[in-house]
Amino acid sequence: MILQSSNQVPGTHEDTSKTTLGFWIYLMTDCVLFAALFATFVVLRGNTFGGPSERELYQLPSILIETLVLLTSSFTCGLAVLAARNNNVRQVVSWLVVTFILGVAFLTMEISEFSQLAHDGHSWAASASLSAFFTLVGTHGLHISIGLIWIVVLAWQIINRGVTGSTLRRLTLFSMFWHFLDIIWIFIFTIVYLIGVL
């Protein structure tokens, strides 16, 4: 349940409930999108068109570092929400900055992996398996990029307005989005990388 400040106008609680419900519906549609991408990947994973297998393409140690970075960013995002509930603007902004830096680090590693694969001749066009891989992992990366923009906007609003009912609601929704991306990444790590390498 989202806290409200005493200076909120009547009807805000109802508006907040509608916003939260709408956001949950959005997350469910994103679940359907990723479920379709996972299903496509699983069906096409063996269609390498004579190219290297997943075991030859993926480097598990670097992917594990990526995973730890993203999971840590989820933790720092949670700390930002806790700081907001304690009305500590400085800590909220600090934890959002740390979350942003970790998100950028994760995205940089993901883009570096894509670039290395393409440089080695294993681009999205090389096989059906790689097309499915780039689409699935790239869609997750696109969501991370949107999340990074959202962090910047949130931090700016909190710096200028402080922790209000509105900014707390937005931060809570962002936290849901960011944790959702972490859950999706755990599935990607398991289904795409871990099963592919083992």
Q: What does this protein look like?
A:
By secondary structure, this protein is mainly alpha-helical. Helices cover 81% and strands 0% of the residues. The termini are far apart. Residues 1-12 have low confidence and may be disordered.
Attribute tags:
198 residues; mainly alpha; 6 helices; disordered N terminus
Assign the structural class, choosing from mainly alpha, mainly beta, alpha/beta, alpha+beta, or little secondary structure. Answer: mainly alpha
Number of strands: 0
Helix content: over 70%
- State the distance separating the first and last CA atoms: 42 Å
Looking at how many chains there are and whether they match, the oligomeric state comes to single chain
Topology (elements, then pairings):
Blueprint: H1 12-44, H2 54-57, H3 60-85, H4 89-119, H5 128-161, H6 165-197
